[in-house]
What does this fold into?
Amino acid sequence: MEWDTRLVHEGQTPDPLTGSVNPPVYLTSTYAQSAPGRAKGFVYSRTGNPTRAVLERVLGKLETGAGALAFSSGLAAAAALFMAHPSGSRIVAGDDLYAGTRRLLEVARSHGAQVDLIDTSDLENVRRAFAEGPRIDLLYLETPTNPLLKITDLRGAIEIAHAGRAAVAVDNTFASPVLQRPLELGADIVLHSTTKYLGGHSDLIGGALAFRRRALLEKYRWYQNTGGGIPGPFDCFLVLRGIHTLGLRVRAHAANAARVADFLNDHPRIARTLYPGLSDHPGHSIARRQMDAYGGMVSAEVKGGLPAAKRVLRRLRLFTLAESLGGVESLVNHPALMTHRSVPEEVRTAQGITGGLLRFSVGIEDANDLLADLRQALA
It folds into this structure.
């Protein structure tokens, strides 16, 4: 089946009890047992819920893996992932990460794990990390990264990691399974903030882990149940509803983002534009090889630094100044003052997260209206 058909039908069948086309929302905390320890498949909704079970089945199929687990947020999913790597473990991750993930890695470090942050867009750095120091247990990747939109060669990085007997987890939030499927390239685990493109309407918080092998799924099911960071059934229903239109939306996001990137790249008030679809992007050829399109995220640096960026933000009308991304509406974020404010200033500066950098989550509005908004804001 093609993607748009799969998104509507795969893993979702009419409810066998009533024939309901959409999965029912099971608002219950506990389930009757016919005898002690004898249940009809569900015991307690932290451990499992029928609505959540449908979402987990769908996410596993869309990421072409052995299955998936749903969480209350993307960070709850990441917390379960890192919880499985206790004191003495070594985690290597990209140096351009969602700031919440970076904070979680600091927690892992405080609990005795060794955490090394490297630029994974250069595979030589990955090779060097595996050649030096203790054995690596987990290689954690974002691609495209947040907010600098760096691209990591997934197949190459995974081959290096597996040769070093490390597991590989990939945050696939920016791409979604419609545009990139890391499990097909050999990754062991895929992470999503389902808040973003999968939900798609800025009306829920959720996360997920998908797994290439059943054994890993069962291992992390224990951490999901023990940590308890699970989504409510109505949030699961909303993610399932969002998935139905994911293909249509993601293609619209990507088409609009390409036009926004071209416009910004040619604008005299923009110092640099970061978008994997631009031919001069350092990761363009890799993105073209491992992605089906380049996504809906664009970052750009306004000339004149923070004062100039603030003037642009004040003038924008269709791009709403807000955190998060992936909803149908266009958003703009100032990473240094918003999502990545917790990153030490010297680290931000060294990485290029400057006062002039803006991150655009390009929505599905008419592209001409978005360009007109940018044009007047930059005038």
